[in-house]
Amino acid sequence: MAAKYTPAPRTGDDSKQKPVRLQTFSGANGLDEEAQRHTDDEGDVDGQTANSTQDKPKLETDLRNLFFDDGKRRIDFILAWTIDHKRPETARQARQVFEENLIKEGLELEYDTRGRDVNFVKVHAPFDVLKRYADILKLRMPMKMILAEQHMKEKYSDWEEDDFGLIVTPLPSVGARLWNNTIQLVRKFMVPFHYDETVLPTVSRSYSCPYSSSREYLFEIPENKDEYFSKAIRSWIVDYILRRQSFNVSNSKTFSFGIKKMLSDGFYSAAYPLHEGHWKAGSANNARKVLFDHWANWTNCLKFQPIDYIRFYFGEKIALYFAWLGFYTLMLVPATVVGLAVFFYGLGIMSTNIASKELCDPHNNITMCPLCDARCPYWKLSDACSHAKASRIFDNGATVFFAIFMSLWGTLFLEFWKRKEATIQYKWDLTTFVQEEEPPRPEYLSKLENWQIFKMNPVTGIQEPHLPFWKRRFPIFLASYSIMLFLAAIAVTAVIGVIAYRVSMLAALQLIPQHVSSNSTVVATTAGLIYENASLVTTVTAALINLAIIIILNVIYGHLAFWLTDWECLRTQSEYDNSITIKLFALQFVNYFCSIFYIAFFKGQFVGRPGKYRTIFGGRQEECEAGGCLIELCIQLAIIMVGKQLIQNNFIEIVVPKLIKLVKRKCSKETREQKLAKTPWEKDYILAPAESMSLFYEYLEMVLQFGFLTIFCAAFPLAPLFALLNNIVEIRVDANKFTTHLRRPLAEKSANIGIWYSVLYGISRIAIISNAFIIALTSEFIPRLVYTSRYSPDESLSGYINFTMAYFNTSDFAPSDRPKDIHLGVISMCRYKDFRNPPWEDPEYRRSTAFWHVLAARLAFVVVFENVVVVITSLISWLIPDVPTILKEQIHREAYITNEIVLKTELRRAQGEDLNSLGGAHLSDENLRYSPHHSEDIELKKRSPSTGKSKSGSQIYI
């Protein structure tokens, strides 16, 4: 097949085109096809080679065909299509017009049509096309090393560089030196966690400026020009061209253009760049395998990520996600340390706490009022001993400190991330990145294909279908968000159902002593154990049921959220993504946190009193145990958070793909020879597509985890530990997925994490209010504080349990509510947890003075806590600049130096000087590209310019 596409006469079916002979490559080191066949892993759907033992020599069988048949022109993109039997001629004509337009743009095509179900078009972008679009898109490219080096020596020879590659003045301030020394110390402790820099050397940053064809002498263009643009940039430029080409002959349909529209219409079945090679052991070294071995492999779970190399392979958008996830995971380390300290402090005081000792002392002989009407018996307060002790682990003075710490931690995390993000933007040349004007979504155009109302786009000047807001959009939005409210109400209803289960289960467990026969020792012992831990059993089983409901509702919510967003018919992909983000986050937030909010703020607050309980649907409301509701909140939070991570992160993302792969392997009748005969584009085609929403679910998962960490941190100080463990696994799971299970995603550019930062900031603000009320209302911290400061004779907790218990005269029970079980004998007076007057005071059972003291203290604590934390966090936000001062100076300095270089070079050009003498494609080791980091320059000098290898012999893949 010729290198360039020549429209050939086609008759109906694409499968009748002339087949193309495909090159086959034998393995390296003289391996023949038989040797490759024996090294093939039968279980690998990608047909990749593997060695299971480490002592065998690696077989370099992965010489992937990434070029046209001539072996010279690189494949930058693959277009795949299947025969459309419903409208074959329409699909064929659309593809023909589209491919002819690609040829006019300068792209080169080659076909693989061997009469199979799937056919492929290989796309190559010549250097001239890449250069033209780099000029149009103003891509920032590295300048010649010698130009920047000369200018730096002239003006900044006496200046120094810090560890981030930023130039600093010879006399930095005391604060700057202290900060740098601190960073150096931290880095020394982090050395064991760094990845192998002999394989993945530190990437240096050179001065760059927007590419210009008229000033090509400014840029470092190698002798082989195809190597100038990275593979990620090449595929990104090709995708940019594909998104702008028409596929309609008559142009009657204005919006019949773009690869996304063709994919939506079914004219193509897939469009993707190729992976660089195989990833399994035994494959030859390539960028994909190096990333797998030193990033996605589970042996690297405690190592930092090679973010720059992730960017080179997957692009800025995906690399930015992993940079954020890695930074978030690293920030969890101090939170985990503090959370563990708080937890162990609680364990230490669990048995020594005076209040717990009083509650557990059976000699106090405190008889409690029944937990339900008629059927439930009286019970002893000492029966709740284990519950009260467990509650003290999480309900103590350290809880307040931890809540304040986590509020500050959330603010510091967001502020330091902004600084980290600014540094990444500078290093990756994203500081001036502006998102291009988005075209309408293909689904939007398809729905409005016959729409009669048009409006000119003020940016592009194109007449586009227009939906009037009040007549068309507002009714749909109103209906859509009304359905969302109904879906949220379903989650609330599910919580009410779980509450009803808890009430009925607790009442049923209270009847165990009446129905268990003493003849069976095993049954009696088990029943007695359940009876003694009735509250714990009820709480755990209810939380598990709630978790199951949450998982089911999440599946329903996911489908309905997409259906509602599709119904809204949004114009651009950004509008669509933002809308689905709001819907799914809101629905999952309500789904996950509804039951937790109930336990934290409502359970036990409006119960009433014995003889006059408040009822809902004829049943009494739930009461908190004698030890308080905080331990129930902790159990609920732990089960939902950890259960979500185990089921969603570990089972769905790890186990399910392996099961699917196993089933495919068992069902597949493909032989090893057939696997080996497959081309790289066929192997990539059978991988799962890298959907545009892939990162959305990853961000959503982590943002919900951030909500668990911060909103309810006062109840569960171990949450950071579980989050840290989960994220260590999550990074490798996601890395493995992108490296091995998905087609290579398009290397998209993005300067930030988008709307997710605003969501994280909103959660951090909600967390301040939430933790203030948890400490004030749910925990016993405020009542204990009031007792020791106002009512205790010796300012200790001695007598605190009696202080929190009110008296009730059992003769005031209604006959229908009086307990029928009197195994404790005739009880004239029982106790219940509340601050009320005893029956011998007038007015009886009214709120006591202590109640109002405690209430006032609780409200005062909420006000003080919120204002103090808000002021401190706001002060921290103000004191920590979003962009480091040194980085600001570096950005301005680079702009100045770049401008000076251009002016001076233009002057020399005008004077007729030979610009090639300034340094060409081949430079000696002494004329290396300028890097603001000395150590990086040293590492570069260790490499041979011709081979790209370091002295250790490790290949560098960029």
TrEMBL record:
It is a multi-pass membrane protein. InterPro entries: Anoct_dimer, Anoctamin, Anoctamin_TM. Residues 67-307 form the Anoctamin dimerisation domain. One of its GO terms (cellular component) is plasma membrane. Keywords: Cell membrane, Glycoprotein, Membrane, Transmembrane, Transmembrane helix. The chain crosses the membrane at residues 318-347, 398-417, 476-500, 543-564, 584-602, 703-725, 755-777, 855-880. Signal peptide: none annotated. One of its GO terms (molecular function) is chloride channel activity. Residues 1-58, 934-958 are annotated as: Disordered. It is found in: Cell membrane; Membrane. The keyword Transferase does not apply. It comes from the Eukaryota. Residues 945-958 have a biased composition (Polar residues). Belongs to the anoctamin family. This is Anoctamin. The gene is 106068237.
